[in-house]
Design a protein that fits this description.
Helices cover 40% and strands 24% of the residues. By secondary structure, it is an alpha/beta fold. It folds into two domains: 90 residues, no CATH class; 146 residues, Rossmann fold (3-Layer(aba) Sandwich), CATH 3.40.50.2020. Strands 3, 4, 5, 6, 7, 8 and 9 form a seven-stranded mixed sheet that branches. A three-stranded mixed sheet has the order 1-2-10, with no helix packed on it. Helix 7 packs across helix 8, helix 7 packs across helix 9 and helix 8 packs antiparallel against helix 9. The two termini are 30 Å apart.
Length: 246
């Protein structure tokens, strides 16, 4: 069994965070993309690491007044890391650090795995007042940075003093030179990350794609198992997804 598949099943105290900082997805049949399945416990530990970095930033900027006071979660992707991050940042014992108010901004930028739109679309306005605030923009994954820059400009137009991107994963190191970023790790550009909030969505969409490429039911099952899907999800959704699309 590969180190990747072993890491999907280990207990919390056995998680190899160094592996997850620069993981490599698995190659499967009938697909040009690689896939990386993120377990719940890994997502929680990545967000805890992001929170530690935010704390360090907040402490460093106590005297300057440049602390993060607002956080905007980009829906849908950032809702899960955002809610976990809220638990770390909205309440804390250090009275010198501001509590962070969380809100949402709806931006659509992917039609499906590996299918980016021509440009991002705002589908829900920002829900909190960001005027004259340092805003943390929470994402789950940043590809080339176009959406992050789009959101930064949007929040600036709504009065934000500055923005800092907060994301578990980046796909481009160039973004670090272009804006302030707090991140956990990197993934290759050809890898589709399956976060805990989109496992079923990805399964259904990718089974349809594999069927169009000539895959049979057993091929789809083998692909999902290789990616790291647990049997209960495969049993629950694969038969109906295959029947509807193949």
């Amino acid at each position: 069994m590969s180190h990747y598949l072993k890491q999907l099943r280990v207990l919390d105290d056995q998680i190899d965070l160094d592996f997850w900082r620069e993981p490599e997805g698995v190659t499967i049949a009938f697909d040009e993309l690689k896939f990386l399945y993120i377990p719940d416990q890994v997502e929680a530990m990545m967000v805890a690491d992001l929170a530690r970095q935010v704390y360090e930033y907040q402490i460093e900027h106590i005297e300057t007044g440049e602390q993060i006071t607002k956080a905007v979660m980009i829906t849908m992707g950032a809702l899960l890391p955002g809610v976990l991050l809220h638990d770390h940042l909205a309440y804390h014992p250090n009275k010198r650090l501001p509590s962070v108010e969380f809100g949402t901004l709806g931006v659509k930028y992917y039609a499906g795995p590996g299918q980016p739109l021509e440009k991002p679309i705002v589908i829900q306005d920002v829900t909190i007042d960001v005027r004259n605030q340092i805003v943390g923009v929470v994402e789950d994954l940043v590809d080339l940075g176009g959406t992050a820059k789009f959101v930064s400009e949007y929040l600036s137009q709504h009065g934000a003093r500055d923005t800092i991107l907060i994301a578990p994963y980046l796909k481009s190191r160039n973004l670090i030179d272009e804006m302030r970023v707090i991140y956990f790790g990197f993934v290759p550009k050809d890898t589709w990350i399956i976060t805990p909030r989109e496992r079923v969505e990805t399964l259904i969409k990718r089974v349809r794609y594999w069927c169009n490429q000539g895959a049979g039911l057993s091929d789809c099952h083998a692909n999902l198992a290789a990616i790291g899907y647990p049997e209960y999800l495969i049993d629950l959704y694969l038969p109906s997804a295959f029947e509807a699309n193949c």
